Amino acid sequence: MFEIRRVAILDDYQGVARQYADWNALPEDARITVFTEPLGDPDDVIAALRPFDVIVAMRERTAFPAAIISRLPNLQLLVTTGPANAAIDVAAARQRGIVVSGTRGAGLTSTAELTWGLIHALARSVPAEDRGVREGTWQRTVGRDLHGARLGVIGLGGVGTRVARVGLAFGMDVVAWSSNLDNVHAQAVGVTPVGKEELLTTSDVVTVHLKLSARTAGLLGRDELALLRPDALLVNTSRSAVVDEEALLAALHAGAIGGAGLDVHSIEPLPADSPWRTSPRTVLTPHLGYVTEGAYKIFYSDALEDILAYGAGAPIRVVEP
């Protein structure tokens, strides 16, 4: 048995964590502190979290490398939303005797839906036209047709498959590539498997749906982006490091591609002086892919279950190194 004393819930940007789980199920003397803003640099993280024996992290918003874990003397249980978290050094936690528990996965459908929101926003200049109507102008842009256009899906997993099926419903020619693409699955979905170069050179819209790994980091660099058509649209709702941000920004300023829709960024939240804030032909969202009521209900209710199970001496959903 473990006495639950102080619980920290991190990065609750919308201030909604308390409404998506019955935190009253915790012992009466357990104190919950909800942090609604990013904690800052590693020293700030350590200073804020030293008193806590339980921490609930929201995805990768706050990183827990070994250097931070080693300086949290009271930490016993670290809960991550989702079944795994690349920003947590699970091996370092285990070495310290800290249990890392996860939750059920969520966000496949919501991320696919947001992907289409970004595609439509780019193809029909929705943000610019919205601003124009509010400013008193009318019809400043000419939209692009998706019907008959080619959609290139990089990564045909859970999210990519859902995105591809919507593209087919819009009457798009959908092609896909990844280094481990299952051609049988692709053909069953109705998608044409192609090589990476063909996808990049022929697609009107390219959308990225890959897990970040040593194999996928920097996958779309300067050379790959140079293959895109001058009017091509690039959408990334997976991880920012899959695309070379500096090369993409340069391509946008040079007019080498038609536009980009980005939900993921190398530094989150974006700093005030980020060059992306003034980038041309872009639609930017603040990592909203998994931020829906359905996902939050799963994340926070499972996190509470993790804490109660650990307190009873029987940890569940333990994340392995």
Strand fraction band? 5-15%
Order of helices and strands: EEHEHEHEHHEHEHEHEHEHEEH
Number of strands: 12
> Can you give the helix content as a percent range?
25-40%
The structure class reads alpha/beta
Low-confidence stretches: none
Distance between the termini: 24 Å
Brief overview, please?
The chain is of the alpha/beta class and 321 residues long. The chain contains eleven helices and twelve strands.
Account of the protein in words:
The chain is an alpha/beta fold and 321 residues long. It folds into two domains: 6-106 and 292-311, 3-Layer(aba) Sandwich (Rossmann fold); 108-284, NAD(P)-binding Rossmann-like Domain (Rossmann fold). Helix content is 32%, strand content 14%. It contains eleven helices and twelve strands. It has helices spanning 42-49, 66-69, 90-95, 108-123, 126-135, 158-169, 183-189, 196-202, 222-225, 245-254, 293-311; strands at 6-9, 31-34, 54-57, 77-80, 99-101, 150-154, 173-177, 192-193, 205-208, 233-236, 259-262, 282-284. It has a seven-stranded parallel β-sheet, with helices on both faces. The chain has a five-stranded parallel β-sheet with strand order 2-1-3-4-5. Helix 10 (245-254) links the parallel strand 10 and strand 11 (259-262). The longest helix has 19 residues, at 293-311. The chain is elongated, with a radius of gyration of 22 Å. The mean pLDDT is 97.
